Amino acid sequence: MIEIKNLQKSYGAGESRCHVLKGLDFTIQTGDFAVILGASGSGKSTLLHILSGLESPDCGEVRYDGENIASFSDKELTKFRKDNVGFIFQQYFLLPNLNVEKNVKMGAELADNRAFRDTIAAVGLGEKLGKYPHELSGGEQQRVCIARALAKKPKVLFLDEPTGALDEETGRQVLHYISQLQRENRFTMLMVTHNQNIAEMANTVILMNSGKISEIRANPAVKTAWEIGW
After folding, report:
1. Number of H helices, E strands in the chain
2. What is the pTM of this model?
3. What pLDDT, in 10s, does the model give residues 97-108?
4. Where would you tag: which of 76, 188, 224, 229 has the fewest CB atoms within 10 A of its CB?
């Protein structure tokens, strides 16, 4: 379970200080699929970075099964991310000197996952194991990132606009595969997206506005990737 208490974050100083997160309180149950929605500048990505241990809050708590990672040192946060967290962000962060297979293998080795090629095939890149990032389209590079994160077998998966660079058909296929794995393996998943249709796939929808949570709701009927609009 992830418990957030009085979470605050700001950037800058003095009159130029910008308060991005303004005292957030909520809980995500283990194994939940939560989507965070909100306009640009509402604090969605900042929240995701703090929940995943990439950034630290100014104050407040981020508790994983009772342990507050907001009080961790940089070394402790690095170990926490290595052992628990998978990332799929808008930026690809692929190593340019490694091919598809080796980029994904980096994540797989953290979990001693020898079946990582199955994950590559599932995102539609089985025929491109030897290709390098510069030989791939933007959508293909995003799928490599998705495969790398999933091959790590994370306890918590964070996604920031994971289908932004994908066409509709590929986006639906990738969402279907991710959600299927999430249900089978019961890892917790939190996704930031501007696509309100994707929220219909989630168990929990968190609405943000100007650094605050305006609403948290449970979906009465979760849809599949093939049933939502686009």
Report:
1. 6, 10
2. 0.90
3. 999 999 999 989
4. 229
